[in-house]
Amino acid sequence: MAKPFPWKAAISAGIVAGLVFMLLEMALVGTIGGQSPWGPPRMIAAIAMGDGVLPPPATFDLGIVMVAMIVHFALSMILGVIFGWAISRRPMTLTVAIIAGIILGLAVYVLGFYILTPIFPWFAMARGGISIFAHAVFGLTLGLAYYAMASRQPSAGAVE
Length: 160
What we know:
Blueprint: H1 7-30, H2 39-49, H3 62-87, H4 94-115, H5 129-150
Helix pairs in contact: 1-3, 1-5, 2-3, 4-5
């Protein structure tokens, strides 16, 4: 009998990776990028609220940030589950988790910043090194967190 899927590890890893991504993206955009750190949350909130929330001005707005966090962390948890399901179908090692996570992070970048730009055109303006790096770090964090959490659960590595 197959062991159950480690849902808690997958969802938790998505949350951890989402938090690291958001903090990193905002910090890099605000420093290296020379733009407002509130730009990325506004771009994410615009997925649900429409492009009327986009800058200028890219200032703090509690309602917009709350919507951004709901959208962002929902997507992060979904990606955590997708990642966990995909990686648990084979024997998992730390190296596999890291490489698979980075690949997923970069795939999410390509999806969001190229494939879905006809639907969300504002993401095209954020293409570049900062976004690529932040997405790779998202994937790296997802792989590390999932590996650490799933390997502690008796159900690690198996799907019902």
